[in-house]
Design brief:
The protein is built from 13 helices and ten strands. By secondary structure, the chain is α/β, with parallel strands linked by helices. The strands form two sheets. It has an eight-stranded parallel sheet with strand order 9-8-7-6-5-4-3-10. A two-stranded antiparallel ribbon has the order 1-2. It is globular, with a radius of gyration of 19 Å.
């Protein structure tokens, strides 16, 4: 998901069910790029009969579905804006060659939403998909939520809604742009708490029965919204959400307040977006820097809703916590990007962490987290910063 969607509660999604043995088997089948990391930062199991032993790009199940994905997912929301098609394909190739099999897009991408850009990202991803075997890819996309609230979507003349009419039109258009007859995961991009959940969930259930979608999920949902969705599905016999895609990072741990427990109890997986807090955790905004072409540099210039979002991500508290996390990463001998990505993906309720890039060179530090598990000493230091600087993003 992208932080572009309306996030009513600033909370974030969840997942569970780690299968170390499955991860080992899948990793051995993939083309893996290995990254040497300091022993103090990793817990590596030498004995292969240890069920927690991992090799290469780890994998995990989406909710209670049959789908297992790499624990890092490549997001695409910058493709067609900050990254042109050539660069986007290089990023996708580099990710795939390193063992990533999970790719997330949306009908509303690229961001920020503009009508003239509507669907461009899916088209770019679709042309890349033609260079790979379809069965080797796990493709996720999203239908826009309602446009009558905080966010006006780029699709359907800004008249989007979570009803059967819009969902059917959206999936048909996405399949055409992606050049495929099905998507593996179909998600509502942001919720409509005032609408009938039965209609949207019934339409998505029909898409599964028709073979156009394998599993469904939500994004930018609250605890109430997720539980209401699951209750409707159980009552009506619809396919349940297997995933929730919400904002979750070292700078935004609100998901742990309530939604993490919902996910653990209900068997729903979080596939968190923005593990680098919109790029803030890369350190590029430290000491008042506003890098040319950077997302929040642009948003501050645009003003309005985008400027409000930028100020939520880039503020005194978020920059202070980023400085502390950078010091922890340096002490561990890894980059802060690697630290943030590894921290995100090792939570029990997380299935796969959605990362993003505008240049292929940014991918290396992300991939370095593929087979990395932070040890207790490192996580203890991270937790100490969290307790001292509460909720940097509000």
């Amino acid at each position: 998901m992208s932080a572009e969607a309306a996030d009513p509660s600033s909370l974030d999604g969840a997942t569970l069910d780690q299968r170390g043995a499955v991860g080992l088997r899948n990793a051995q089948r993939m083309r893996i790029r290995r990254y040497a990391q300091p022993a103090t930062t990793l817990r590596r199991r030498e004995a292969r009969n240890d069920p927690k032993w991992d090799d290469g790009m780890q994998t995990k199940r989406l909710g209670k579905s049959a789908i297992a994905v790499s624990k890092i997912c490549m997001g695409t929301m910058t493709f067609g804006n900050q990254a042109d098609e050539t660069m986007a394909h290089r990023i996708l190739d580099k990710s795939f060659d390193a063992g990533i099999n999970f790719f997330d897009t949306a009908e509303n991408y690229p961001v920020p939403p503009k009508e003239e850009w509507a669907g461009v990202t899916e088209e770019i991803v679709g042309r890349w998909m033609k260079t790979k075997k379809r069965d080797a890819l796990i493709i996720a996309t999203k239908v826009c939520g309602p446009s009558h609230g905080w966010l006006r979507a780029s699709q359907r003349s800004g008249m989007t809604a979570l009803d059967r009419h819009n969902i059917v039109r959206a999936i048909e258009a996405s399949l055409k742009r992606l050049g495929t007859d099905y998507v593996d995961l179909y998600q509502t991009h942001w919720p409509d708490h005032g609408g009938r959940y039965e209609e949207a969930l019934g339409a998505m259930d029909d898409l599964i029965r028709e073979g156009k979608v394998r599993v469904v999920g939500c994004s930018n949902e609250t605890s109430w919204g997720l539980m209401n969705s699951l209750a409707v599905c159980d009552r009506e016999g619809f396919a349940r959400y297997d995933t929730i895609q919400n904002n979750f990072s070292l700078n935004n741990r609100r998901f742990e307040d309530e939604l993490a427990q919902v996910c653990r109890q209900e068997g729903v997986s979080l596939i968190p977006y923005s593990p680098l807090a919109g790029g803030v955790l890369s350190g590029k905004y430290q000491r008042g820097a506003r890098p040319e072409g950077a997302r929040f540099s642009n948003y501050l210039n645009i003003g309005g809703r985008q400027a409000v979002m930028a100020q939520r991500f880039v503020n005194e508290k978020s920059l202070a916590s980023t400085e502390r996390f950078a010091a922890i990463a340096a002490e561990a001998g890894i980059s802060i990007v690697t630290l943030a990505t590894a921290w995100s993906k090792q939570h029990d309720f997380v299935a796969s962490t959605i990362v993003g890039a505008t240049h292929e060179d940014q991918v290396d530090d992300i991939l370095a987290a593929g087979d990395l598990t932070l040890d207790a000493e490192v996580t203890k230091k991270i937790d100490a910063v969290t307790k001292e600087i509460l909720y940097p993003m509000g």
